[in-house]
Amino acid sequence: MLKMLGGILVTAGSAAIGFYSVAGLYSHIKILTRIISALRYMKSEISFTLAPIPDLTQRLAERETGATGVFFGRCNSELSNLGEKTFGEIWSECADAILKNALKEDEIQTFKDLGELLGRYDSQEQALEIERAAERFDFYLQRAEQDKIRLGKLYGAMGVLCGIAVVIILI
């Protein structure tokens, strides 16, 4: 009876690890979606209202949820150091601190590259660069959705199968 209970617990534990990995795929899609939404909002605000960057980061901090909201909130609070650091440096540091674990390396780099361009050019150029970044994030989102389809079932199944394999080995 104890062996059976132990086997069930081992299988359930390894299945939970597999399902946790699947949840990470869903979380990645969610944050990419939030970033795309924030970029589209930024583009419209810069294009139509000519919103300055501090006002824009404040609005985005209030509007966004999760890691993107935290990112824009921290970016807005760090703007007090704007004389000591460039906006691009502030943006990059905030991206490293908050989004590094949620995004892949190329996604982080795209986000950092955008930060280097914001506030430097006129509103049309900024809107164009934001749109380019949003298009790249659309590509990243498609890639993440394909990964979810391709890897989601694999992670779930491998978690369960590894647990069963461990149980078989231990019995």
Could you characterize what this model shows?
The chain is an all-alpha fold and 171 residues long. 85% of the residues lie in helices and 0% in strands. It has six helices and no strands. The longest helix is centred in the first third of the chain and has 48 residues. The protein starts with a helix and ends with a helix.
The tally of strands reads 0
The low-pLDDT segments are: none
How would you state the average pLDDT, rounded?
89
**Biggest sheet, in brief?**
none
| SS-derived structural category | mainly alpha
Radius of gyration: 21 Å
Order of helices and strands: HHHHHH
Task: List strands and helices in order, with pairings.
Layout: H1 2-49, H2 53-63, H3 66-78, H4 87-99, H5 105-117, H6 123-170
Helix pairs in contact: 1-6, 2-3, 3-4, 4-5, 5-6
